[in-house]
Amino acid sequence: MVPEINLLPSLEKKKSAPTLIYVLLIILVGLVLGYMIFLYIQAKGDLLQLNTQEVELSSQRDQLQLELDVNKQTNKGSLEQSVQFVEKISYPVTPLIDEMQALLPEQTYLRKYAFSENQIEMTSDFESMAAISKYLDKLLASPFFSDVQVSTIDNFDVTGGKAEEVIAQDKFKEIPRYSVTITLAIDTIYLAGGRAS
Q1: Cβ neighbours of residue 132 under 8 Å, at least 6 residues apart?
Q2: Model confidence, pTM
Q3: Mean pLDDT over all residues of the chain?
């Protein structure tokens, strides 16, 4: 028998543990890389959404700023106009009412009055045409009024509108009463430095 002698080194494969470690390391790096790519894509989507919101909010801010500027200009004009209107029309009314009532003759009643920018419209009840004439003279002499105009003169029934038949003789026993509407132009210069009420 011939002995076999093998002088060649043995070619057996050795199983090594580092291969398993390399595979695990590659899987771990793949997972981390996949997670990083996922975060990048999500951040890119959020960035696009935030840019869109920024553009919308910026345009909304510009629009609101424009409305605010317009409202400031409108309110400023309105406020200035209001102040001018009040300063133009503002005058003390108590001296005027006192003057109108003080000049009324006896048995005469001031029924109503209305103020406008520079005049008063008043309605009074008088007993006679002579009383109306005297009252108009007193108003014209008053320093509070620059002009006096009679708008209407109406007579009215003193009995209160009762529907009774009146005999012709009894009809002349009652003196007719007159309701007069007068427009008075206010003398604003005198009223500005006028007497206190």
Answers
A1: 126, 150, 153, 178, 180
A2: 0.49
A3: 81
